[in-house]
Amino acid sequence: MKKITIAIDGFSSTGKSTLAKQLAKELEYIYVDTGAMYRAVTLYAMENGMVTEKGIDKEALIAALDDIELKFVFNPNVGFAEMYLNGKNVEKQIRSLEVSRNVSPISEVREVRSKLVALQQEMGKEKGIVMDGRDIGTVVFPDAELKVFMTASPEKRAVRRYKELLDRGEDVNYEDILENVQKRDYIDSHREVSPLTKAKDAIEFDNSDLGLVQQFERIYEHALRIINN
Description:
Layout: E1 5-10, H1 16-27, E2 30-33, H2 34-47, E3 51-52, E4 55-56, H3 58-64, E5 70-75, E6 80-85, E7 88-89, H4 97-107, H5 110-123, E8 129-133, H6 136-140, E9 146-151, H7 154-167, H8 174-190, E10 203-206, H9 212-228
Parallel strand pairs: 1-8, 1-9, 2-8, 9-10
Antiparallel strand pairs: 3-4, 5-6, 6-7
Helix pairs in contact: 1-9, 2-4, 2-5, 4-8, 7-8
């Protein structure tokens, strides 16, 4: 069976990672969560005083990029690879609302994107990979055999994110999360470097009112048609 590259892009909290993990598991492909990579860089910047009320200290962040080591390590207990920052498991820390508030401005930094895109392209050289993010089908893998662009209403996405954070024990409220979702949408779609856009040959998938099983089955069928063609 031939191997392909599957690129999943879309807005925050549209279930990109959930779908990507399911596809990777079913196809026995490698799964890469590029959002976790940007979140890890954001966490590093926050922990090292590069994120303040005045904004991002871009010069300090750019100077420190060579000191940032990112690695995915498979955890058999959860069934997927977790993000390690400089040898430390930061999977839980990078999912916080505080990191979410700062990840879009960090992702705008050209040098950050250049470093991470190069890492992502290296990971996918042999195909047999499912990667999700914001610019996978447009920048990282423009020749991917299957491209999916996921969307849903901001309100539905905010509810999903709210429930997710509550389950993790965080003290959050819906209004703050909805504001964060809308702000990230704007920044991601309007940034100068690699803005969030739908690739011309991507399948657009609105899952505002679609269950996880239905969503997976539809995209999985697309993948199989391409693989078996």
